[in-house]
Design goal:
Helices cover 42% and strands 17% of the residues. It has twelve helices and eight strands. It has a five-stranded mixed beta sheet. Strands 5-8-6 form a three-stranded mixed beta sheet. Helix 9 runs antiparallel to helix 10 and helix 11 crosses helix 12. The model has no long low-confidence stretch (mean pLDDT 95).
């Protein structure tokens, strides 16, 4: 088992400021058998120059015209040879023993996936706070979904997981038409073919947030449409396995969060999302935010409150 090769797959687009720190976290891994496959997706900054500073026999660097993150991920898979897969965004970090700890759990569990602790940071990884969650324990995949989405949100960022290659092959490629929140669709698909989610205490992911121009911050019609389609796919796949009150409630909350975020950028999509929510479960929530937004929503309604919030420059 100590010789099992882990492929670390990194799609990169204009990550000059962050990719060096990300690669340092990979090269600090205590697991000895690693290969790193990076696909530069048509970067126009100095990302490639930063990557080439780390050139060695374990690092494969490929380039393509800008085709999007999912295309880059599929190319990473195609050119990797490891028996385990670690996805990693070009601006996130992993703790030195992250892969080692997860490999220990997966050594005799070929149909399982391993997950990790995670926390957000804005500038300095030392400021990351790791707040325990209900899913920080071993779980059946359906129980993991129910607990993760208990508030309608949940986090499925790529760096969390270590995955046996046969499960990656069975899950199939990343969907090219999904441009935002595609990780939720992909990992929902992957977890549903696994037998258990194994939590690895001490294995840590440092999630960089607040990056200007990041995919997660997009407010375009295409971005909202992608999120809508992702939620459709996730709901259909999970409810096909367990059409229960807890699952319908969690997806109703997810649709309401999408509606609140999309309004007033895409009002028609927001109303479609609300309709989906109301079909699933009677639970109702107001938009998240500070006390001013909550107070204003009670006075003028959440739609008017959101319009005023966006008009004031807040998203």
């Amino acid at each position: 088992m100590t010789a099992a090769l882990v492929s670390v797959l990194i799609p990169c687009f204009n990550a000059e400021r962050y990719i060096g720190e990300t690669l340092e976290s990979v090269f600090r891994q205590t697991w000895p058998a690693l290969e790193i496959v990076i696909v530069d997706d048509g970067s126009t900054d100095r990302s490639l120059d930063e990557i080439r500073r780390f050139q060695c026999s374990r690092l494969t660097v490929l380039s393509q015209k800008n085709r999007g993150q999912t295309s880059a991920l599929n190319k990473c898979i195609l050119h990797s040879t490891g028996t385990f897969i670690q996805y990693l965004d070009a601006d996130d970090l992993i703790s030195p023993d992250k892969i080692s700890l997860q490999m220990r759990r997966l050594s005799d569990r070929p149909n399982c996936v391993a997950t990790a602790e995670w926390g957000r940071f804005y500038r300095d990884p030392k400021d990351t706070r790791f707040v325990p969650e209900a899913v920080w324990r071993d779980l059946d995949p359906l129980d993991w979904f129910a607990l993760s989405r208990a508030d309608g949100l949940g986090m499925m960022l790529p760096a969390l997981w270590l995955i046996p290659r046969p499960l990656v092959d069975r899950a199939g490629p990343w969907h090219l038409e999904l441009t935002l929140n595609n990780d939720a669709e992909y990992f929902t698909r992957l977890l549903l073919i696994s037998s258990q989610v194994l939590f690895c205490e001490g294995a840590r992911v440092f999630y960089r947030t607040g990056i200007p121009g990041s995919l997660s911050g997009l407010k375009s019609p295409a971005a909202w449409a992608s999120q809508f389609r992702v939620l459709e796919l996730c709901e259909s796949r999970v409810l096909a396995r367990e059409n229960s009150e807890r699952m319908r409630r969690s997806f109703s909350l997810s649709w309401q969060h999408l509606a609140h975020g999309a309004y007033p950028y895409d009002p028609a999509l927001a109303e479609r999302a609300l309709a989906r929510a109301h079909q699933l479960h009677p639970v109702r929530i107001m938009p998240g935010g500070g006390w001013r937004l909550r107070w204003l929503s009670r006075i003028v309604g959440w739609r008017a409150a959101r319009r005023l919030q966006v008009a004031s420059g807040r998203k």
